[in-house]
Design a protein that fits this description.
elongated, 13 helices, eight-stranded mixed sheet, Trp Operon Repressor, Chain A, 3 domains, Aminopeptidase, five-stranded parallel sheet, Alpha/beta knot
């Protein structure tokens, strides 16, 4: 097995002449070549780094120097291993997988790290890239982690350890966020541009972009760290970003909770009915009699009703689960044959939004409710996008299907929320609960995104 190690401190790797690894090199079991990154520089100072785009402390290692070095060392079969604090924790399972690889190239970063485009470029070119970390701490460079990987993987190569089978069942195992991607000059490299926000000069936008990317990277690689974040340290931007990544922070929660919106199943019926009973009064106008609200819930939102909705092919019932509990739901009525759902309930059949006339069915979004603990968390967008996506699949045969809803005309909060979801006001209708008539604001929008 061959390891190529690229570093600005090649003498660091004299340690690999020692112990079992050194003996394996002598016996030809491991072929380890160490390279000085500065050999691929072309300036008198042999520079390998430059200042970061977007500002900030430290220096970033240049993509052009690294690209030249990796072009020469990867060959046709190399796996690129990049030690980084924002990588996936190195585990025994990963080492077992890498032990089956014939050629590994280790790129040892220093300073603030290697320009993010380097790994992206080789990944897009078909090279397998492994970003790995030794743990939730920071070293001065990647050399220690490179030695760790060479030893951890090398000891699994047949012939190095007397009985490698005895080493197979080993395993390893934090709070905070992983690092955002970093970039330096040149601004355009091999067709890849530095994100425009980093050259905007707007420090607030740069900070937000970096925070969002850090959340994104952490959610993708270390979801356990997301679920350990203290809720009190998350601002509105953090919560919005987390909602887009599938995490919500309900009021009173200590940490973000995993959230997913999906089509409801029979097992969801008790949770849906309980939620509906809690949330329907929130949407009613002030002064509505309690007995009328209770009667409406019993006649339209009981467990029997939700069992029927879930089983009915003419209904789409969506459930939003947060931390394993149903805390949101949507119910859409699907008309047959491109018709109009809820025509007798004030459907806006002539609705035109953003100059896009309807050419297809008009779906009624009959119910769209969230537990009040989810207000302001981004939950509405998460539930709506899952619902819209499912409706778009259903409406695929038609050029421009629409969806409409009614909400209490006095409920400005709900109307603002629907506008944020792309709905536009179309007029009013009368909605009866018990023997009391109520005025609803009617909204509509195309199902497809613009």
């Amino acid at each position: 097995m061959r390891f190529d190690i690229v570093s600005v401190f090649p003498e660091f790797f004299a340690v690999l002449d020692l112990s079992l690894i050194g003996k394996a090199r002598e016996r030809g079991i491991l072929d380890i070549a160490v390279h000085d990154l500065r050999d691929w520089t072309d300036d008198p100072h042999r520079s390998v780094d430059d200042t970061p785009f977007g500002g900030g402390a430290g220096m970033v290692m240049r993509p052009d120097v690294w690209g030249a070095a990796l072009d020469d060392t990867l060959g046709d079969d190399g796996v690129l291993a990049v030690p980084t604090p924002s990588g996936t924790p190195l585990t025994q399972r990963m080492c077992e997988d890498l032990a089956a690889v014939g050629h590994i190239v280790l790129a040892c970063g220093r300073y603030e790290g290697i320009d993010a485009r380097v790994a992206d470029h080789y990944e897009e070119s078909g090279v397998r890239v492994v970003r790995y970390s030794l743990g939730d701490y920071v070293l001065n460079g990647g050399e220690v982690a490179a030695v760790a990987l060479v030893e951890a993987v090398g000891r699994l190569v047949p012939g190095l350890v007397g009985n490698p089978e005895s080493l197979v069942e080993e395993s390893h195992g934090a709070a905070g966020l992983l690092e955002y991607p970093v970039y330096t000059r040149p601004a355009r490299w091999r067709g890849l541009d530095v994100p425009a926000v980093l050259t905007s000069g707007d420090h607030g936008k740069v900070a937000r972009w970096r925070r969002d990317r850090a959340l994104e990277v952490t959610a993708g690689r270390r979801p356990d760290m997301i679920e350990a974040l203290p809720a009190e340290g998350l601002d509105r931007g953090d919560r919005r970003a987390l909602a887009g990544l599938g995490y919500l922070v309900p009021a009173g929660a200590a940490h973000p909770l995993p959230a997913s919106a999906r089509e409801a199943a029979a097992s969801d019926v008790p949770g849906l009915a309980d939620l509906a009973a809690r949330t329907f009064p929130d949407a009613c106008p002030p002064g509505m009699r309690e007995e009328d609200m209770r009667a409406f819930v019993e006649s339209h939102l009981s467990r029997e009703d939700f069992s029927r909705y879930v089983d009915d092919p003419g209904c789409l019932t969506m459930a939003l689960a947060v931390g394993g509990r149903i805390l949101g739901y949507a119910l859409a009525c699907l008309p047959p044959d491109g018709a109009v759902a809820g025509a007798e309930r004030g459907a806006p059949v002539q609705a035109v939004v953003d100059g896009r006339p309807r050419s297809g069915p008009l779906v009624e979004l009959s119910k769209f409710y969230l537990d009040r603990r989810l207000r302001g968390t981004g939950a509405a967008a998460l539930l709506w996008e899952a619902t819209r996506s499912r409706l778009e699949e259903w409406a695929a045969p038609w050029p421009e299907a629409y969806v409409w809803l009614g909400t209490n005309a006095a409920n400005e909060r709900a109307q603002r929320a629907y506008r944020r979801l792309g709905f536009r006001f179309q007029g009013q209708r009368t909605f009866r609960v018990g023997d009391q008539d109520n005025r609803d604001a009617v909204f509509a929008r195309p199902i497809r995104m613009a």
